[in-house]
């Protein structure tokens, strides 16, 4: 009991210490792993944290090609890159966002949203460029049939597997960041829902061997999210500038149409045509076997369509509310301008000038007609 009391009062166990020094703690852990690479005894263990595991030599026409598949050791690699993500999060916050916040003098609510959008703009831009590079170099854009040909795609190139591990690490690191960044209680359910959806979709594509389709869908999703959070940043700096929201609205609709088209193309037409439809779980073709049955295929497509419809409904509701607020603001401005014009108009007065409340003529006499005395 005495040790427990001392532990609670020690600064290492305090909430403030963890909040302000979590990036330093992560940096120390990463540094320990990197130092372990220098010694032969610990190098093999250190490589488990840094490099993707489960490499396999696959024979090809040009020789042997090293590829990868997933396994439990991936969790160790993901843990290491969670600490990397925490460090990068702190660097962006301290050296970019905090300096901008000091100049803008935002309110507490806007300050929290500005930090959230700033972090996501940096992440989405990096992931967008990286994902586009992977998709182009692997030939998934030039040959769309490769999205379902030779399914299941059990073996992955190095850059594809490394990309998925880093994506999982980033969205897992976002969970403790809710505590470290002191996110408001009102915003926690929304952010938890967003993190959970990303983790389910990325992990589902990774574990079900739908990595090629997942890359294209992530590219489209990150493109729309980048424009949205960029529009929010511009709006916080200048509340009269909402042009980027209009750009985001167009990009959002286009990306959702492409997303739905890809789902129908791959799930509805591509995967059912895969030649090897025998159930062999050790080869990872369980999903391909299930898609040979029209009931399962139609159920998945129905769920996808319902999810996309709910996303579009929220988008339409957001746009209608935004337009109502815009027109209400414009009408109130017009009324205020009309009232200002009426107040600025000069009052129509009688000829002459006023003196002690009595209208005087130009020569100083009262313009009123004199009463004639009766004869």
TrEMBL record:
Pfam families: TRAM_LAG1_CLN8 (PF03798). Coiled coil: none annotated. One of its GO terms (cellular component) is endoplasmic reticulum membrane. The chain crosses the membrane at residues 78-97, 118-142, 247-274, 294-316. GO terms for biological process: protein insertion into ER membrane; SRP-dependent cotranslational protein targeting to membrane, translocation. It is a multi-pass membrane protein. It is found in: Membrane. InterPro entries: TLC-dom, Translocation_assoc_membrane. Residues 337-375 are annotated as: Disordered. Its main location: membrane. Residues 112-326 form the TLC domain. It comes from the Eukaryota. Keywords: Membrane, Protein transport, Translocation, Transmembrane, Transmembrane helix, Transport. Belongs to the TRAM family. This is Translocating chain-associated membrane protein. It comes from Pavo cristatus (Indian peafowl).
